């Protein structure tokens, strides 16, 4: 079960990285060092939605600050 959760987390991280790259380029990818510290699949799923709906990198940054331990 833990392996499945870790696999899902890794997949979400890869997807989030791709979305940030496509949508915001290098400015978006700068967030990945912080995003990798998000510890749950649920929070990463929420972040994916936030990124999709966001208009700027700063909007993403402000939205996920509370998700990081």
Summarize the structure.
The chain has 69 residues and is mainly α.
Characterization of the model:
With 69 residues, this protein is an all-alpha fold. Helix content is 75%, strand content 0%. The protein is built from five helices and no strands. The chain has helices at residues 2-24, 26-29, 32-35, 41-53, 57-64.
Q: Notable features of this structure?
A:
mainly alpha
Strand content: under 5%
Helix content: over 70%
Q: What does the overall shape look like?
A: globular
String of helices and strands: HHHHH
From the helix content, strand content and strand pairing, which structural class follows? mainly alpha
Task: Describe the sheet with the most strands.
Answer: none
- Roughly what is the average pLDDT, rounded to an integer? 93
Quaternary form = single chain
Count of separate DSSP helical elements: 5
- Poorly predicted spans: none
Strand tally is 0
* C-alpha Rg (nearest Å): 11 Å
| Distance separating the two termini | 23 Å
Question: What layout of secondary structure does this protein have?
Answer:
Layout: H1 2-24, H2 26-29, H3 32-35, H4 41-53, H5 57-64
Helix pairs in contact: 1-4
């Amino acid at each position: 079960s833990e392996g499945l959760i870790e696999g899902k987390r890794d997949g979400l991280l890869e997807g989030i990285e791709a979305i940030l790259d496509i949508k915001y380029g290098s400015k978006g990818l700068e967030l990945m060092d912080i995003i990798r510290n998000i510890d749950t699949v649920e929070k990463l799923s929420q972040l994916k939605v936030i990124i999709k709906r966001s208009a700027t990198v700063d909007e993403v940054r402000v939205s996920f600050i509370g998700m990081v331990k």
